[in-house]
TrEMBL record, chain A:
CDD domains: DEXHc_RecQ. It holds the Pfam family DEAD. Signal peptide: none annotated. The gene is recQ_2. Residues 218-369 form the Helicase C-terminal domain. It comes from the Bacteria. GO terms for molecular function: 3'-5' DNA helicase activity; ATP binding; DNA binding; four-way junction helicase activity; hydrolase activity. This is ATP-dependent DNA helicase RecQ. One of its GO terms (biological process) is DNA repair. Residues 26-193 form the Helicase ATP-binding domain. GO terms for cellular component: bacterial nucleoid; cytoplasm; replisome. Keywords: ATP-binding, DNA-binding, Helicase, Hydrolase, Nucleotide-binding. The keyword Mitochondrion does not apply. It comes from Lentilactobacillus parakefiri. NCBIfam families: recQ_fam.
Automatic annotation (TrEMBL), chain B:
Residues 250-341 form the Helicase Helix-turn-helix domain. InterPro entries: Helicase_HTH. This is Helicase Helix-turn-helix domain-containing protein.
């Protein structure tokens, strides 16, 4: 079986080897076993269902919460060789949705948002189709205990049954034990029905570092120095679009690196140009919000810098996982100044409704349908939960988020090994014999005085792409369209 | 888009113009008031050319233009360009094709054509290298279907050569010639990532808005070229379904009923269409503004007697004549007829009512 699967891998994707866990998961699916897979970012989740679809010629439904990025996922699957791919999301207008539903049988891979899947018309149409595999991507969204809870995910268990209980693959990059139990229960499985494959969260090739700055000015100066001298392509993450844009401008002016901003608020065409430039090596650095990186494969990102504090350790681990996907050394830097915590607290206040807002919304339930940010409140309201129950739920949610933020801040201030600090969150530890103090975190070596040496020693600077050389329009046209003559 | 740049391009040294009216004209807000001012400013050809675009804050833009000495403002939020503003306007216009190529966007969805052509170029480019592993551009479902059908039907027609030839002919004839370099950066294809408008602007030391307008003009020009090539052209499907109506369909329906009537009973039209009488007035004014003078029956709506009174009392600049002033000298004057007269006079002074 092993040999056969590898041959299939080569045949469909041209790869010689699977990434850790992929082969096991595929074997489970091919043996018709429902599977929960915890695979780290960059672990090749897409390949799993794409290869299953290719080998079995069956239809695959992928439930994904990332509406704004679903089109990127469609592009990515097309890039990887599957052409019959479509996305059903609330971003479609009525006519598009009608046309897609009418012709849904033409598609082998159907991405669908959980909100769209809750729609009766969509369910009815899917019930008419043969479904070979039902994939729940980002499955941690199903858990109230997870940081990204989406109430529509709670309906997935019932929806799956209505679709004839097809073979199911639930995937996430990061899930703690309680979250895993929660996922299985909400999907209406009993633990014995599910085969779990849990890969280590630890990415030993990523060096971990963090630094506390006195203020933003000091942080900005340090960022310029880092960007000037760190080798390789890199991503800098921000919590705000405007700061990402502003910093991209500053870094362009102050360094000789090629830097652009990328965020969900941009039009699709410039976003596409920038993504292509970064992939092709025409850009060195992307100043991004968390939207960047989910839809694309760029294996040689050498460093990920967080200019702002992420909301929780799960998000942080996901985002730093975008460097070193080629398994060569990568560097994660978290830049912190005390106001960053307040920024995240502000985001919590903005996203978790307080008691007075709940009072108002319960008194004016029509308002619940006016704004997407009330979706979670609407869920509990429609579910029959009382105002007091809703208040308790949201107070818990707030407390949990504050606690998660606290864990993130603790990661910054810890004087112990940063890797241990990250992994303990996932009940994981560095395996005996695999600890490597010379390449682990900035507490084991004098990183902050020697980061330039670190960069020279470990981070490869890729050769400059020739694409960016100035060309006349005639040369560009000749380059674009290869003539047979 | 930077509203300051647009105000300089569409502002005037002779006339005070409302910032909001210009903005609403460009983004296609078809209220009678906006259309009327577009007529007065000679900007009817530019209605909806920047459909759906985000602009800056009117008041802020006005303040910036005034404080930088590029415009003067009156107390009704109107601006008139200063000599310095006109210099700057000229500098922008020198970087653009004649504005008639921007006006193509008023009649056709050029922005959609641009996305379509850019995606088609990517497909053909990768096809010419035999590569089917690439990130395709994102485009809506119907556009995607159109391109798929077009590609499947034509992929054995040596598409790469046709694209090469088309672009060589089109870009080779451009004046100013350097716009050809601006155009090709909008494309994406095999081992070519193109540039964003912002990146092109940095390279050429100009404004991102100017580059965005250059692209719209260039694609407008290319669209016209491909439409002239006729239905049998290989590229014909790429220019199909892009026409925009210059009059809203509801106004067209009202006007059609009006033409079918013998007694010109506007209340009857309102009843039949289940709309308010004032909406019927607005529809007729919209059609009047957007039609050539001879194509609208002014005389059926303004009696000879009223027309004579209006002609007798009109000031030199009829566009600035207020309804309040007019109704003081003409008894029983209705706003609808007053505005219709203004449109009529404005059109008569500018024969076909348009400016290219």
């Amino acid at each position: 079986m092993t040999m056969d699967l590898k041959r299939e891998l080569k045949k469909y994707f041209g790869f010689d080897d699977f990434r850790p866990g992929q082969e096991d998961i595929l074997k489970n699916l091919l043996a018709n076993r429902n599977t929960l897979a915890i695979l780290p970012t960059g672990g090749g989740k897409t390949l799993l269902y794409q290869m299953y679809g290719a080998m079995t010629h069956q239809r695959v439904i992928i439930v994904s919460p990332l509406i704004s990025l679903m089109q990127d996922q469609v592009s990515r699957l097309q890039y990887l060789g599957s052409k019959r791919v479509v996305a059903l999301t609330s971003a479609l207008d009525f006519q598009e949705k009608t046309a897609i539903l009418t012709h849904l049988n033409r598609y082998q891979f159907i991405y669908v948002s959980p909100e769209m899947l809750a729609n009766q018309q969509v369910q009815q149409r899917l019930m008419q189709l043969q479904i070979g595999l039902f994939v729940v991507d980002e499955a941690h969204c199903i858990s109230e205990w997870g940081p990204d809870f989406r109430p529509d995910y709670l309906k997935l268990g019932t929806v799956r049954e209505r679709l004839g209980s097809p073979l199911t693959l639930m995937m996430t990059a990061t899930a703690t034990q309680p979250v895993r139990r929660n996922i299985i229960a909400h999907m209406n499985f009993s633990p014995g029905d599910i085969h779990q494959i849990v890969l280590p969260v630890n990415r030993a090739n990523i060096f971990l570092s963090a630094k506390i700055f006195a203020n933003q000015h000091e942080k900005d100066d340090a960022l310029i120095e880092l960007v000037k001298q760190l080798n390789g392509p890199g991503i800098i993450y921000f919590s705000s679009k405007s700061k990402a844009e502003q910093t991209a401008n500053t870094l362009t002016n102050e360094t000789d690196r090629r830097v652009m901003a990328y965020h969900g608020g941009m039009d699709s065409q410039p976003r596409f140009h920038i993504q292509q430039q970064f992939l092709a090596g025409n850009l060195d650095i992307i100043c991004a919000t968390s939207a960047f990186g989910m839809g694309i494969d760029k294996n040689n990102v050498r460093f990920v810098i967080h200019y702002h504090l992420p909301a929780n350790i799960q998000s942080y681990v996901q985002e730093i996982g975008r460097c070193g996907r080629d398994r060569k050394p990568g560097l994660a830097i978290l830049m912190y100044e005390p106001n960053d915590r307040a920024l995240q607290m502000g985001l919590i206040d903005h996203t978790v409704p307080d008691e007075s807002l709940l009072d108002y919304l319960y008194a004016h339930p029509k308002m619940l349908s006016t704004d997407d940010q009330f979706r979670v409140v609407k869920f509990y309201h429609d579910n029959g939960d009382s105002l007091e129950q809703a208040k308790t739920i949201f107070n818990h949610a707030r407390t949990r988020r504050v606690k998660e933020l606290g864990a993130m801040v603790q990661y910054v201030y810890t004087e112990k090994c940063r890797r241990d600090e990250l992994l303990k969150y996932f009940d994981e530890a560095v395996p005996d014999g695999e600890r490597n103090p010379s390449y682990c975190c900035d507490h084991d070596v004098d990183f902050w005085d020697r980061w330039r040496d670190f960069s020279r020693q470990y981070l490869n600077q890729p050769a400059q792409s020739s694409q960016n050389e100035a060309k006349s329009w005639q040369q560009v046209i000749d380059q674009l369209f290869l003539s047979k003559n | 888009m930077d509203l300051r740049v647009l105000m300089l391009i569409f502002g005037s040294g002779q006339q005070f113009r409302r910032v909001k009216a210009i903005k609403n004209t460009l983004r296609g807000r078809r209220t009678v008031s906006n259309l009327y001012w577009a007529l007065e400013y000679g900007l009817l050809d530019f209605v909806d050319v920047l459909h759906g675009t985000d602009f800056g804050e009117d008041q802020l833009v006005l303040t910036q233009l005034v404080s930088s000495g590029l415009a003067r403002a009156d107390d009704t939020f109107r601006i008139q360009l200063t000599a310095k503003g006109i210099d700057q306007q000229q500098r922008y216009l020198n970087q653009l094709l004649p504005l008639k190529y921007l006006a193509v966007s008023s009649r056709y969805d050029v922005a959609k054509f641009m996305r379509r052509f850019s995606f088609a170029s990517q497909i053909v480019s990768e096809f010419s290298y035999g590569n089917n592993q690439y990130y395709p551009q994102s485009i809506n479902y119907f556009e995607d279907q159109l391109l798929k059908r077009w590609f499947v039907m034509n992929k054995h027609q040596d598409l790469p050569r046709h694209f090469q030839q088309l672009l060589r002919d089109f870009l080779g004839d451009l004046q100013p010639a350097d716009l050809a370099d601006v155009f090709v950066q909008s494309l994406v294809g095999h081992n070519f990532s193109g540039l964003t408008a912002e990146q092109v602007a940095v390279k050429r030391r100009t404004s991102t808005t100017v580059v965005a307008l250059q692209w719209l003009q260039l694609y407008g020009m290319l669209l016209e070229k491909l439409m002239q090539a006729g239905k049998t052209s290989l590229f014909s499907p790429l220019v199909s379904g892009l026409a925009k109506s210059t009059v809203s369909s509801s106004a067209q329906a009202t006007f059609k009923l009006f033409l079918q009537q013998k007694n010109h009973n506007l209340q009857a039209i309102a009843t039949q269409r289940k709309i308010k009488l004032t909406t019927v007035y607005e529809h007729l004014l919209e059609v009047a503004i957007m039609s050539k003078t001879a194509a609208f029956p002014y005389r059926a709506l303004i009696s000879d007697d009223l027309m004579n009174q209006l002609l007798a009392h009109q000031p030199q600049n009829v566009g600035e004549w207020t309804f309040q002033d007019a109704s003081q000298v003409i008894g029983q004057l209705a706003f609808f007829q007053f505005r219709l007269f203004q449109i009529y006079r404005s059109k008569m002074s500018d024969d076909d009512g348009s400016q290219a």
